[in-house]
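Figure 3 (text version): structure tokens given as input.
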């Protein structure tokens, strides 16, 4: 499948990507990741290996799009849970320094 990463076209197959990543230890995942075999790799690491380009030359989105089109499972960072907001009663109780349940 033809993929464009960092303005360069690449003819990639799923088997070629698996072969290229074989024997490469995954770095700690701090952003988007791609599941290759049983390992989660950072998408930037995969992009660097398969394109042989510096990671600064392409975006994680470009690699994620290419890996998804090839049939790999990609994941973003989990969304943080929204901060809990206080109800008016809890807010007033907190301001007065008393328990809302008392």
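Below: residues designed for each position.
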């Amino acid at each position: 499948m033809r993929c464009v990463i960092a303005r360069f076209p690449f003819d990639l197959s799923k088997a070629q990507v698996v072969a290229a990543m074989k024997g490469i230890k995954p770095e700690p995942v701090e952003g988007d990741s791609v599941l290759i075999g049983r390992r989660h790799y950072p998408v930037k690491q995969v992009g660097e290996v398969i394109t042989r380009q510096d990671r600064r030359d392409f975006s994680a989105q470009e690699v994620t799009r290419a890996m998804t089109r090839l049939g790999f499972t990609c994941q973003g960072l989990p969304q943080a849970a929204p901060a809990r907001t206080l109800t008016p009663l809890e807010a007033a109780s907190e301001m007065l320094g008393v328990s809302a349940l008392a």
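The chain has a mean pLDDT of 87.
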